[in-house]
Amino acid sequence: MNSLTEWLEETLLKLNLTDEMDYTHGFTRLSYTKEEKQAHHVFQAIAETLGLDVHTDQAGNLWATWLVNENTPTIAVGSHLDTVSSGGGYDGVAGVLTGLAAIKRLKDQHYEPQKNITILCFASEESARFGVSTIGSKAISGLLAKDEVASVKDAEGISIQEAVESFGLSWDKMDQAEVNTNRLESFLELHIEQGTQIEEHGAQIGIVRGVACPIRLKVTAFGMANHTGTTPMDKRKDAFASIAPLITFVEEQAHQLNEAASLPLVATVSTGHIVPNVMNVIPGEVELGIDIRSVDDQLKKELAQRIQQYCKEIESKRNIRVTVQTLVDNDSVFLDNSIRNKLSEIAANLNMKSLNMDSGAGHDVMNMAHKWPSGLLFIPCQDGISHHPREYASLEDLVTGTKVIAEYLRQESGGKL
Amino acid sequence: MNSLTEWLEETLLKLNLTDEMDYTHGFTRLSYTKEEKQAHHVFQAIAETLGLDVHTDQAGNLWATWLVNENTPTIAVGSHLDTVSSGGGYDGVAGVLTGLAAIKRLKDQHYEPQKNITILCFASEESARFGVSTIGSKAISGLLAKDEVASVKDAEGISIQEAVESFGLSWDKMDQAEVNTNRLESFLELHIEQGTQIEEHGAQIGIVRGVACPIRLKVTAFGMANHTGTTPMDKRKDAFASIAPLITFVEEQAHQLNEAASLPLVATVSTGHIVPNVMNVIPGEVELGIDIRSVDDQLKKELAQRIQQYCKEIESKRNIRVTVQTLVDNDSVFLDNSIRNKLSEIAANLNMKSLNMDSGAGHDVMNMAHKWPSGLLFIPCQDGISHHPREYASLEDLVTGTKVIAEYLRQESGGKL
Q1: Are B199 and B87 in a shared domain?
Q2: Last-in-domain residue among B329, B354, B386
């Protein structure tokens, strides 16, 4: 085992706050919790060992900078360290880790950059806790709708504002995390693919063109709660039985739209809340959360419209009220052509096969791309499994990613070996 | 307003710990909570005002007795004071209230009984907190499977054992609440109908023949959690989409069985738990709770079998694992013919129209009936709405119930006016 591989393995464990990657229940470092904070402390310690200057901004993002000169441009790479509940140890971590490893590699090679290089560790990327994603990178990019989200609460009733403040930040000053356009020259994120396309194409890395941002709907069916034993079948307004066919409909329609379309679409009824959810009461209210994604924004809108229409049919057929609320409707983001071309060239020069592809998942880079030329690099993850304890990327793939980032940073920062 | 009506109205409010019956969020006095305990304290105070001897047994049931002589038989009536979450103020309360009111009526008439009369206030009738119902009456009847339920937990992770102990009882001594057969002569419960049959038949009271006890199933679908954005439609094992057709199936089959059967059947998918239940993760596991009831036990079993079969079809069609667990399978309980006849006669003598009927809901009486000749009397509740803030029974109907119980107690206790 060479020293880069060893360093990657050791640092992977450290960033995951563990000495063993294989856990039945995976890793849980939700947004703005003490677990995310702990991982940030570890990141800071590692970055400082590499000789980087580390500071935390007003949104809790960490900036670890190889500082050449305050007046030269800065090249940034990075990702995040928070996870979903019982998630894997690579989603986010892989990007932060390979960024740090690329710095180590360049330093080991006695490289001297001409521009500043920053490894960004974004705060609170996952929507698992609050239903709001990429909070840290939104703050940096000036996209955070602070007033809209302040009172959004987690399952325990803690608001984002409260969580941010107990993370040691000031809610009032969170806007100040926004960074002027001229402070960064570009941004590159590395992430695990969370799919199987790279592997299926026999490639080692994926170079992303478009990021499929979601339409998210909240569908609520209002029936009438009543006793399960005493309410005859023909006198019910069962919210669950009424809305259940929608779950099947969403899946069927997604398949149908995929058959005709050139770009893929995915749609999922991913959440459900049944009220009151007790054995002897007919469900009086059911709320379903639907996540629709495609790089083709029209395709997403088409499905959202069909869902609206189907809910109207349920309303009149079952004589209950059904509401459809659009929680999120973000157009897809396309990444910088010039960075994509550079990454392709670097991969070719390193004798790696790369795949041009789209991303079905959102990442911090989609916010950064609103303001700076940005790129997104994928490394494979086993069987495409992600947001799950069995999420896995090989050390070999982490080495591959590190080499591409190191070479990219070398070329972009205009220094000499 | 005569004094019985006034007393019923005042006491109804007291037992519900309120000064107003009409609340948007209804009443919440879950099993073995301080709210149930508060209602028990009120019951005790009222019973003592009526001159009854009150004691609490080892399961938390209250026995309020008009004591003639320790060696004479005891006639018992009663119900419970706990509620579901956001329930109504009549389910259980009506039975306790009319029992107390009947005593008041007899005492106001200077009646002198020859047998002891006990108003029983059973602890913890509703299954809303632990999924286990009629705990108090099971303990009295020797039907409580203490070891099986000790570790059953509520939504906050508190076990029945812990709840019982924080209610001021000893878990070890709970068995001692069992009562010898010879201590009681008979038991009568009054309850709101939780349906609309009495009203539809133009009657004032219902006299129950059979109590439809439930079969309860827990169906669990085990799919594979994965990222909603990166997992193509044809590579998913979505537990929610896989099992959703079962919700429709249960409703359809219940309708179908009703068409052919002489006794009605009801079936409800009343609970659902989606794991992990977050917007960007495909549901990896879904658990559905199904409640099936009919006085015809064969009909219940037929539907349970069809559900088993349908789950096998889902398993093979969707290539996921589906398990079906039987949580409860209780045969229906039939009430004492002699008590039914007495109640019919009393109603006729009081110029009330009574309806012979079955009960779709379980009640404490179904446990008592295993050991003692027992009866169940229904009063109407508006629109059949129950387990809901809009649950309502009129004072007139409470007066009706009180009169029947008073006359029943008079006849059974063999005293003189």
Answers
A1: yes
A2: B329
From chain A, the residues in CB contact with B84 under 8 A are 276, 278, 280-281
A48 and A153 part of one domain: yes
Nearest chain B residue to A244 by CA distance is: B244
Q: At what angle do helices B239-260 and A239-260 cross, to 10 degrees?
A: 130
b vs e for A288-307, b when ≥16 Cβ sit within 10 Å of the residue's Cβ?
A: bbbbbbbbbbebbebbbebb
B82 and B206 both lie in a single domain: yes
Residue B28: list chain A partners with CB under 8 A. Answer: none
In this predicted structure, the answer to whether residue B53 has a pLDDT above a threshold of 70 is yes
Nearest-by-CA chain A residue for B213: A229
Interface test with B, best of A230, A253, A314, A320 (most B CBs within 10 A): A230
Which domain range does residue B253 map to? 214-329
Read off the pLDDT of residues A328-346 as tens digits, 9 standing for 90 and up.
Answer: 898 999 999 999 999 999 9
Distance CA A290, CA A272 (A): 9
- The alpha carbon dihedral of A101, A103, A106, A110 has a sign of negative
Q: Please check whether residues A118 and A65 belong to one and the same domain.
A: yes
Name every chain A residue with its beta carbon within 8 A of the beta carbon of B194.
227, 229-231
Give the separation between CA B37 and CA B62, rounded to whole angstroms.
11
Residue at A315 is within a domain: yes
- CATH code, domain carrying A29: 3.40.630.10
Residues from chain B that touch A291, judged by Cβ atoms under 8 A, are 228-229, 279-280
From B162's Cα to the closest Cα of chain A, the distance in A is 21
Model confidence over A142-182: pLDDT tens digits? 999 999 888 899 989 999 999 999 999 999 999 999 999 99
Both A192 and A75 in one domain: the answer is yes
